[in-house]
Fold this sequence. Notes:
Shape: globular
Structural class: alpha/beta
Number of strands: 30
Helix content: 25-40%
Distance between the termini: 55 Å
Largest sheet: 9 strands, mixed
Strand order of the largest sheet: 15-14-16-17-22-21-20-18-19
Number of helices: 17
Oligomer: single chain
Radius of gyration: 26 Å
Amino acid sequence: MTSSKEHPCVKMAKNFESGTFVTGCNYWASHAGIYMWRDWSPETVSADLELMGANHLTMLRVFPLWPDFQPLTAMILPSSGKMMYLNEEPLPDTEAGRAGVNEEMLARFRFLADEAEKNGIRLIVGLVTGWMSGRMFIPAALESLNPLTDPLSIKWQVRFVRYFVKQMKDHPAIAAWDLGNECNCLEQLENNNQAWNWTYAIASAIRLEDPVRPVVSGMHSLHMDCKRPWQIADQAELTDILTTHPYPLFTPHCNREPFDTLRNTLHATVESCLYSDLGGGKPCLPEEVGCLGPMICSEARAGAYLNSALFSCWAHDLRGLLWWCAFDQDHLKYPPYEWVALERELGLFRADYSAKPVGRVMRKFNQVLDAMPFRQLPKRRIDAVCLLTAGQAHWDAALGSFVLAKQAGFDLAFRDAEQPLPEAGLYIMPSIRNYNVITARRYHELLARVEKGAKLLVTSGNGMLQPFESVFGLRVDYSHEDQYQETFSIDGVEEKLTLPLKFRQKLLAVDAEVLGSNESGDPMLARRSYGEGELWFLNIPIESILAETNGAFYGANMQPFYRIYRKFFHAAGVERLIERENPAVGVTEHPLDENSVLCVLVNYCPETALTGLKLVPGWEIAEALYGDAAEIPGNDAAVIRIRRTP
Length: 646
């Protein structure tokens, strides 16, 4: 037995966990989809893997379908009650039999792993695959049980996981163990304790047999609301890599503009950064990304979307991006493909192996990274901390604030306002709502940071802060529910900004500088010195409203609300090395050392972007590693290295 230091997979596993960017897709065999294990074709699997390796894919997420690999049936015997059988045969007196595992299926999986290794591909294995593409797959003996809470079901899941991992852990193609595909869809739960217990059982079973490889969550649609069962914090506590499945069609407020425009092309980045930041810095992988078929957008737009998303995820410290899925499945005639139209045409490749635009984009992106002197970027610069608070719609506030910051030209990180407050020069509390925004302890900690020199921007709908007037220099004259259009201007500029509101709050300036007013002259944006720092207050929850508004970030209805964020950023005296004029272009800065910085510029929209690029005095472009930073084609990017001038 070799030591862990000598294990052939240690370096690869650590590379994946530490941040080497991986690209690839979720894989079901091209000929059979979810029935690939029972309708086994080794020739097809070999050809599939050869095609994907030739297209420079580096990672596949694969699924040992639960009832195929653990085909348990229950026999009711008068003398001894219920007994477990394997495909209606007695469980063999073997290690596999005691785990209820079909050894032929395991041999087929090993063949898949061998073919992956042969083609330079690594595997993330979704172990408990009981939910797939809208259909449940549970062993017959366990079908009547809640798979997430029933002790008998969990016992057999643990036995399956331990045996499978033990048998495959030495295979060099295995990169990580995924708990299972979207297991939070398997059954409704009453509370987060149940979700925690199931996650702990499966993650512990994996680690008992393989302490080397990372444990990947495999979940989607997690929350920070303590009333919801599946929590970001719990998955971060129990797994090594968090996951998102950021489909714009299924995610609130993400399908409100064309598929290849700013809101959607940033979606995977925003959601994954949110999970990672709220999860205490645990790495996050968008492990399912896709357009959900040609009735959502054209193949060309899907490819353009993917190109922006790939560069964006790479630039924002994420672990990679996996497309859903490898092959179109429009030729398959059984559920879920028979049931649901959007399950049929989702591949990088068609069933005849021809590459779709998304497949060509994935190949080109991998070639671009392979040509770079690095595949993993240094950590990006973070300029501000966005504090998410109780009582608000967290996703709305997070999405709106991230997009506005990106348009304004700076980068932020997320925190739960009740987590320990990180040191920062800039804080944003977006779209606060209701009476329990933040505990008094955390609020006074935040104000103490401002007293020492930090700047804080609060945007509010009907959020309650106490103390307020003595801190912000504003007095609430009255407030009540209402539905109306609010129009206001900043610094007396003729251009006016208008949003629909559901709550009216009239403010009076007591000891604050008014920077923006509505048409009645009431303060809307105000600033006040507080110790050595500054407090800013905007009387409109722009982040959540923009997230809820169709066309807010692209098209004729777009208004430049990002200028409020940019004004706050510039007034705080923070200076980035690169400034650009075009709000469709996002810029990340990645310091190499004191004199050299890598910069990634991503055009998040389909039109060619003239960036209006400016460097601060004393810096110059040293080399262009990809693209043209002055003029970036639609949904493309540029990568440059800048340096201090000699």
